[in-house]
Amino acid sequence: MASSRQDYIAPWWTYWLHNFPHLNFNFQTVDNTFKPEDASYQQSLIFLACVSAVGLGLSLLVLSAYLTCLCCCRREEDEEVKRPDTCCVTWAAVITGLVICSAVGVGFYGNSETNDGVYQLTYSIYNANHTLGGIGSMVGNSLGSMQVGLKEHLERLDEIFSPRGDYTQILRFMQQMADNIIQQLTAMPDTRKVQVDLAAIADRTSFIEYYRWLTYLLLLILDLVICLIACLGLAKQSRWLLTVIMVCGVLTLIMSWASLGAGTATAVGTSDFCVSPDKFIANQTKDSLSADIVHYYLYCSQSLPNPFQQSLTIFQRSLTTMQIQVQGLLQFAVAVFPTAEKDLLGIQRILNSSEFNLHQLTALMDCRSLHKDYLEALLGVCYDGVEGLLYLCLFSLLAACAFCVLLCAVPRAWTLIAIRERDYDDIDEEDPFNPSRRITPYNPARAQVHSFCSYSSSMGSQTSLHPPLQATSRTNPCYLKEILAMKTSR
């Protein structure tokens, strides 16, 4: 594990993002060292996030200019307009759909990578928190046993051994050893505050990551749905579907640029941390931990001395001395003072329990466990996490450009649909080549009128009669005969 510290090397993309210009609201250069509590550094990240607002403004400006030209610069209807060429709109829709689908695939991959990196970060933090909790528990148990349990047994034994000065001298020596142990345990850093801080950081990170992952997932699904609706609307030439596409497309365009800004700011801030994480952690822990302790766990080198080695050694020697003294009293004093056996056995149990805690404490306070969690956290957030954020930024950029093109193609498709409908309505109904002229309209009132004249006497019943010929200027002779017959009957 001596060379384990060299296993972490910040990836190249973190250096690339780290070199992004950091400007405050006054357009002044800011130090790119990761300092989230500094107001100027916060302004630099907000400035990077607002850069995407410029892209959104340009997209809306281009879209507005295109729509203005489409509405105000319409040409006179000619043969070319009446026979519009839909090739450009079709290819624009196809290419836009392919770009959106590709962007969604990139987005799904980036969202998964970021989630994996953050999960590894929080998992490592929880492991480190568990280690610190074990250290605090071992120190607390040993300290309580020495201050309370051992003291009670020694006080009772002092009363029992009061007739023998040599035995009481041994008890005072044991009390001195116990005080040494208490002093060493008290001098150890209180890990409970650090444990609470790590737990809060892990919980907050998990909470934010869940809603980040869910938001991107819904955005990816929304992009796919809009792409499908666009294909359906263009295929069916449905105006209301195209209207839905326009409204949802504008909203998605805004969300794409917003997600690009948020992703860029987050990636740059995380990269600033990944370039020099040791410096940031040392600054954050300087008030609660000494520099040699922080340096020991951050680098975990065999050349670095264990800052707790002296305390643990004194703890071990004091326990061994006390165990030897108790063993001697059990061997020689119990025969003279039988009532002392119970307290001596109680002290022996406390010493055995403290020795077990000492071994556990020695293992937990070794730098290898916490340093391993530290490296895994760095690898998770700086490799998978930042890489996933870059893919999400690429998704947002591709989606924003694709939806901008789609919003330009939809009004053109609307215009082509309107031209086709107008051309269909302009067909002359008197045109003999119009297919609708060949269809004889059905007149139910005429079907109930009986003819007074058979057009073909040999054709059977009246239901089989052929339709009358077109009216001419000549008067029908059958009609004249019927009029004369009516006058004669009068």
Automatic annotation (TrEMBL):
InterPro entries: Tweety. GO terms for molecular function: intracellularly calcium-gated chloride channel activity; volume-sensitive chloride channel activity. It is found in: Cell membrane. It comes from the Eukaryota. Keywords: Cell membrane, Chloride, Chloride channel, Glycoprotein, Ion channel, Ion transport, Membrane, Transmembrane, Transmembrane helix, Transport. It is a multi-pass membrane protein. The keyword Secreted does not apply. CDD domains: Tweety_N. GO terms for cellular component: chloride channel complex; plasma membrane. The chain crosses the membrane at residues 45-67, 88-109, 213-233, 240-260, 389-410. The keyword Transport applies. Belongs to the tweety family. Probable chloride channel. This is Protein tweety homolog. The lineage of its organism: Eukaryota, Metazoa, Chordata, Craniata, Vertebrata.
